[in-house]
Amino acid sequence: MTQACHRKCVPPHYKESELSKGECVCLDRCVAKYLEVHERMGKKLTELSLQDEELLKRMQQGTGTA
């Protein structure tokens, strides 16, 4: 994330010692997108894990093993 957002938002040759307003906004949006995707993926993986656990329980109950 750090490298990708830096590459996208900050020019390779620095003109000033501090980031410009546009660079700051770009970095903020870029990081926000990564965090949103990370959160969505985490929720989806948790959901899939719970579904797998439920399926496993049903399969074990159906075969009579615990």
TrEMBL record:
Alphabetic keyword roster: Chaperone, Disulfide bond, Membrane, Metal-binding, Mitochondrion, Mitochondrion inner membrane, Protein transport, Translocation, Transport, Zinc
Record note on quaternary structure: Heterohexamer.
GO cellular component, one term: mitochondrial inner membrane
GO annotation (BP), single: protein transport
Gene field: Timm10
InterPro entries noted in UniProt: Tim10-like, Tim10-like_dom_sf
Membrane topology: Peripheral membrane protein
Entries under Pfam families matching the protein: zf-Tim10_DDP
Locations listed in the record: Mitochondrion inner membrane
Boundaries of every Tim10-like domain copy: 1-47
Domain of life of the source: Eukaryota
Protein name (database record): Mitochondrial import inner membrane translocase subunit
Family: Belongs to the small Tim family.
Keyword Ion transport: no
Source organism phylogeny: Eukaryota, Metazoa, Chordata, Craniata, Vertebrata
Physiological role: Mitochondrial intermembrane chaperone that participates in the import and insertion of some multi-pass transmembrane proteins into the mitochondrial inner membrane. Also required for the transfer of beta-barrel precursors from the TOM complex to the sorting and assembly machinery (SAM complex) of the outer membrane. Acts as a chaperone-like protein that protects the hydrophobic precursors from aggregation and guide them through the mitochondrial intermembrane space. Mitochondrial intermembrane chaperone that participates in the import and insertion of multi-pass transmembrane proteins into the mitochondrial inner membrane. May also be required for the transfer of beta-barrel precursors from the TOM complex to the sorting and assembly machinery (SAM complex) of the outer membrane. Acts as a chaperone-like protein that protects the hydrophobic precursors from aggregation and guide them through the mitochondrial intermembrane space.
Domain notes: The twin CX3C motif contains 4 conserved Cys residues that form 2 disulfide bonds in the mitochondrial intermembrane space.
Transmembrane segments: none
GO molecular function list: metal ion binding
Keyword Transport: yes
